[in-house]
# Entry
Amino acid sequence: MAFSYPRKQTFIIFLVCILAVGIAICYVFGYFSVSNTTSKDTAVAIMPAISGVAPLSTSTDWQKQFFQNASTTAFKASKKNAASGSEEPLTATDLLGREFFAKYMQMRQANLTTDPATINAVTDQLVNDSVGSVQPPQAFTITRIHITDSADSASLQSYAESILSILHSYIPDETANEAVIAQQALNNNDMAQLKKIDPLIKNYQSAITALLTMSVPRPVSEYHLNLANGMQIALFNARAFRKADVDPVSAMAALSLEMAGLQTMNDALKGIKDYFINQGVSFSK
Amino acid sequence: MFITYKKTTRIICTICLIAFIFSSTALRPLSVQAQGQDVPIGTDFDFNNIMTHLKDFVLDNLAETIAKQILHQMTLSIVNWINSGFEGNPSFLTNPEGFFLDAADQITGAFLDTSGPLSRLCSPFSIDIRLSLALNQTKLSNDRYRCTLNTIIKNVENLPKNISVNGRSIEGFMGGDFSQGGWPAFIALTTEPQNNPTGAYLQAKSDLNGRIYAKQNAIHADLQMGSGFLSRNSCKDVTEAITSGNTGDLGLSLNEENQLRSDSFGNQNLALQKTNAGESTYIQKQVSYNDDGSVETLKYQSCETQTPGSVLAGSLQKAVDSPIVEAELANDINAILNAMVSQMITQMLSQGLKSLSHGSNGTPSYTNRVINNINQQTNNTIQRGNAQAANVVNAPASTTLNKYKAYYDQAVTLITKNKTHFESARTCFVSKIASTTSLSTYQRMYGENQISGIDTYVAANIRPALADLTSKQTNALNLQLQLASSTNAATHYVATSTQDLQAQISAYQNALRISITSSLNAAGGLTAAQTDLQKAKTDSAKFSTESTRYLDSCAGFPNNATQYSTQTP
# Structure
């Protein structure tokens, strides 16, 4: 008896400990929480706020933290949908609208619609996420360029003439640029004018095809790659401005890239010219 | 002699191969084939004109216009979303009715609270008034005008309302027959405004004015929000209705209709505010003229100024079919939308278009991400080219150099090992002389002679050989480092201009020169290195025999130090 008593006690204590650990684990992972209607996303989003030290019943700090830290559900949902292809794609503007509305309702429920810090945090997040949700143009890699080791005078002349022919044929001047057309359409509230961008889109596509199929002397391949990527930005911008009436958020992203695309092409063209000049090739006007 | 000739031939061939490969790839820009070429390209192409025009005349204005379009399109998108029942996925709210009732409850609760505006009422009827107000809040507004006189008269006679029994009715009492209602009816008539014509009119008029005032205030606040930035006009063509005189649905008074058709109004493009329909609606008249002054087109439009907040709040009201505090909701929405769009505009105009999205939590902006992606592709191209060039420049030379250095590494290791053995033997003797107290004079002299012998041997044989080999080993190492450094300088150059490209070409030329020199030096010294290694091996064997003798001698010391063994090992 004296021998078995301590073993029994140890066994019971061990059982109690196991039980306690089990309960603690269940509690932590929510197995004992009352079933509610909160969505999974919301539960996940609120987790960081719960870790705050302020008592929930007496402070709204956790709610402010929620709005300042919570990831945007609509943008996340959009990415999921895009990945699964289960629903028709929403435009970036649709996503911004839904996210704004959802955020507003959450703020309203938390009585934070007049809290400047929360409004700043929410608007900041909305602005960044909305532009960030626009799929950026994909840059070409060097493997897409047809590089040739031939750099004789005939090859260089042919290359130079081809490049300038592409630019003159497909790049619109400053009065017929896609941004100018979009400006006129939006200012006049005449979205039919946006159709004028369609030929530009075709031109940019043709220019890219030409740039990717032509033979490029190896020394200028880097600049040629940049020229093609600049043209890719121009194509992206033209497509986005074309839909400025239904998806102005994408148009806004395009607007932010307009100068960058032109600058990329300008730098690339300058690099090509400098190379030719360095090689003693002159350009007669 | 034959062997030397063959090796020399091989070295020259290697150098020629290096020069050939290098010239056909990395140093291609130095080709002179194109010099003097003239490319007739007609007019030059310049992106600067386009960029200057966009920067000066288009982008800032377009940014603001797109921001307005975002507001408009976003509002439409949300309304569609709401009208579609949130597509079965109201992620933001599970109980909209409860939410909107909460908003009304909050206002009522604050008003009725003991610390609220009613706190100074006389205590005997304070609770009654609060209760009455609270109950009224839950009633339909029509109840406020419900006549209670017939209830009183009905109660007197306990009969259904509007039925005259024994000659008693409301009409009778109001007609002057006091007996038909008595004092209760009199009190009800005089104290409850809805029971007498004057009171009912004043109450209704007051409520109506209040509602109109509230509505106009809300619209005015909407319009002022963002200095009109948020507002947008929604117009529909009403030319036919006005020209045909069928203006019943337009909310125009007769006076306004006449004013619209009058000559004083008809010669210009003007807008007529429809006072009957509130401040936000107006009729717009647009006239265009032919060259001879005759009217070409005449168009009337009924326009309404809307804000995103008012549209969304109105849409929500229809969707949830519950009492919404519409104006309050609209103001809230407009305030946050205004903040958001203002932030967009601020970022665009103050930080430049490239900073449209300035990034958050350390993530780069949208524009920077795109540009970084392009730069990354270009950098990959440069790095790949540099790696190929480096391989062409470096590989053959480094193979020869490595072999050259390896011979001397091996030789130095061998002789260093011999030197270590001699040092061990010397240490052994020094230790035993110092620690053994019973040494005879002869034994001590023997030990010191051994030490002296070791020092002499090492100084005469080991150190000169080791110094020579170490010097040659260092030379090989320096050649290796020099080659690596010059190649590194050339391949890590990021050319962003013609000047940079020239500098990079110079760096490659320098690397190639060093490579060839190193190769030649290493190749020329390769046979000598092999000879040196062979000699080192022979010497090492001899040194090893000597050092072993000293070690054995020390192992037997001092017992082996007798008068008969006076010779050093």
Residues 342 and 561 of chain B are 103 Å apart (CA to CA). The mean pLDDT of chain B is 68. The two ends of chain B are 43 Å apart (CA to CA). Chain B touches chain A through 90 residues (CB under 8 Å).
